[in-house]
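User: Hi! I'm working on a homework problem where we have to compare a predicted structure to a textbook description. Could you give me the structure for the chain below?
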Amino acid sequence: LGSSSSAPSAWEFKRGETDHGWDEADATQINVRGSNFLKDKNKNPSETSVFEVVHLDLYECEDQKGYPNISAIDNGVVKELRKAGDERFFFVVNFCMPPLQISCVFAAKGGLAGQLPPADGSKSAALLHRFVEEMSDAERSQRFKVIPWVREGPWIVQKAVGRTPAIIGKSLKVSYFHDKSNYFEVSVDIFSSSAAQRILSLLKGAAKALTLEVFFVLEGKDPEELPEHILGGFRVSRGDLSRTRGPV
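Assistant: Happy to help. Predicted structure tokens:
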């Protein structure tokens, strides 16, 4: 088991490993809504992702109810990254399926301490700022999309997961936690949907044979919010669920 007292880079679930590992996923291989999508319905490859993956943590929860706000938990990945010296603003996506959880921490490439990427006239960056700083939770749940892609694995799992973008707040309970200048966390309760639980069961059963990529994007609904731009994406390669960190 990874030690909760060691730096995240020393944990057993490592970046770049092809067995029980994780890495960045290539956003440019994902089609998103183009500039004129509302008129022509055309999708185009995304630009490189807004964020880079800082760390992906696969862990067991000591509290059997899980940690909906993992960013605030001692020995959680966010606080451990802070101890290791990373001062950037974190965008965290936390999948809760206690006692197991998987949390992905993103940050802006070359980002400044405690700051979101600057808008700089970018439509997608302006939408991100509104999502984090201004929108209600109900509005956020109409915007946050996940795009899964089973790169390798049994056909039945590929078929069940698909590659269609989904606004997860429409079918799952999603909570949002914002600690200004520190982090913004999107927390997804997998157990709030029976369909999601069935897919999770398939994923768990085939985990050691899977290469799974997951991307996140904010849905552009108006011309001034297009084209869309992948926020970030991660890849999990042949995860071994018996080798989780913790209990945390």
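For your comparison, note the following. Helices lie at 37-40, 77-83, 123-133, 137-140, 155-161, 194-206. DSSP finds six helices and 13 strands in the chain. Good luck with the assignment!
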